Every structure is written in structure tokens, then in C-alpha cells.
Amino acid sequence: MGGTVRADAGEQAEPSSVIPGAGPANAPGERATVRLRDVGPDDPPRYAPEWLELREGADAVARAGDLLDPLRIRLANLPGRSGVVIHDLGCGTGSMGRWLAPRLDGPQHWILHDRDPYLLHFAAVASPRAAADGSRVTVETRRGDVARLTPDALVGASLVTASALLDVLTREEVDTLVTACVGAGCPALLTLSVAGRVEIDPADPMDEEIADAFNAHQRRDGLLGPDAVTVTCEAFAAHGATVRVHPSAWRLGPDEAPLTAEWLRGWVGAAVEERPELKDRADRYLRDRLEACAAGELSVLVHHSDLLALARPTGGTR
Predict the structure, then answer these.
(1) Residues 251-286 pLDDT 10s
(2) pTM listed for this prediction
(3) What is each CA distance from 116 to 3, 93, 182, 184, 262, in whole angstroms?
(4) Would strands 188-201 and 108-114 be described as parallel, antiparallel, or unpaired?
(5) What is the chain's alpha carbon radius of gyration, rounded to the nearest angstrom?
(6) Helix (H, G, I), strand (E, B) or coil at 51
């Protein structure tokens, strides 16, 4: 149930490479390295492409550039280095590749993982063409749910990346991801995990109540939500990896009003879904916040964290 599509970055894949609603089929001799969850035929994608496009600029500004130097040093010292193989888990529309590939030197081959075949197709054809030094960047896609990595999914990986992924995983799924990274001996750059803290200016007495309800919603069904970074750090450390964490907050002002408005709707909506008794007051709160946002009178700081884990290299790393 996982497939592969290869395309040079920036080039259109063949029309038959992606089957709408089904995803690409395995090429002869290939094996699936991710599995889909057991879901119904009408199970919606986790993220709408419109939302991913709306947040891409804020994500790019927020990501912790301070983590890149130690990452570059590790990649430059990989044994037998002739280019890097990067697995982007839950790639969405490919924003991580568009941000990171032009910041790293040398040939890069990106393997993009997502459950949504449309997002995979978009990510493949919208990937950057060249690395920071002009080296070639190529890409392939694999359909499946990254929460269900097989044990050998990352063999041969030089780097694993992800954005806004850890907080929608369970502890067991994080352990699976960490074990796969450590087994491959590759670093992991895992960005933009929710930290459970929001600051809004001007403040409102209901801010904290909405935030608490939203955080509880994030922890539904065993998902880690705001606890994800702590749990992931502990899991990597237990395997002897060196872990660095850096803040990566969205700083949303009048210029980001469309993103702020959409984020507010989702933030308040999740809080009400978790605590329906908030609905009447939350409706008024949201209306007032959206009016202030439209008037350019609202600023929001949404806290996230970026994590760089440097696992001990193994013979499987290249």
C-alpha cells in the first residue's frame, strides 16, 4: 500500500504516475516502507492543501535556522558521502523541501512520504531544482501513513525531516519513528511541533480557557499534542542521541491576517469540540477576535518547538 513516483525536482511527473484517490502503484521489485492506517474510503485527508499553502510563509520564518549549522556539520561528515538521502515524513505540499534543500550543499535525493496522493503529486512537482551550491535535487514519493513506518523504512537515510507531525502522533508512534531513525543512524530535524502556549495582544479573559480546551483536544485518543517534543526528546536520549530544541514560534501581525483568521477559527473550533459548554461564549469571542484581526488590531504568538536529534552513525548511514 505504499508506492513510488520519481521525478526530477521541478519537472512534471508523468500523468499516469499518480492515480487520483489511490496513490501511485509500486514499481516492479519495490516494497512498501510505510503502511496506511485502517480507514474507510471516505476518510478525509489530514490537512487541506489550502491550509498548508496559507501557513507556508509563517512556517519558513519560524523554523529554527540555528539548528542548521550542527546539521550541516553532521551531514558533511557522513561516511562515503556522495550526496544525501532525505526522508520527509508527512511532507504535505513539500514546504520543508522548499525551505531546506536550498540551505544545504551537495546533491540531494528527497523521499517524500504522505498518505494523500494529491499532496504527494504537488510536493513532487513543486520541489526545488537545486541545492545551495547548485547541485542537483531529485525527488520520489511514497504513499502511506508515517505513523506506521516499517522497521526498514529509513535504511540508507542521511536525514529525516518532518513539520507539524510529532504532536499528531501517539507515544507508540513516536517510539517507532525514533527507533527507525536510530536504526538508520541518521539525524532527524523535526520542526514546528505545538508547544501548547499562545499569546494574543490585546489579551482577553477567555484566552487561557480556550487554550486549555484546545490543548485537551490535541491530546485526544492518546495523541501527544503539546507533550510531543518532551516525549520525543526522552525517546531519542534513551537511545544515546544528542538532542537540541529551539523555539520556532509563529509571529502573526496585520500582514498575516488571513492566516491568523484561519488559525483562530480552527483553534476556537477545536476548543468548542472538546468542551461544548463553551460554545455561546466562544462564538462571541471568535467574532470579536476576527473583527480585530480584520482591522489590523490583533497580534498572535503561537509557540512551537523545533528538534534536532543526532543519533550515533551506523554502517547503514550514507
Answers:
(1) 999 999 999 999 999 999 999 999 999 999 999 999
(2) 0.85
(3) 12, 10, 27, 25, 22
(4) unpaired
(5) 20
(6) helix
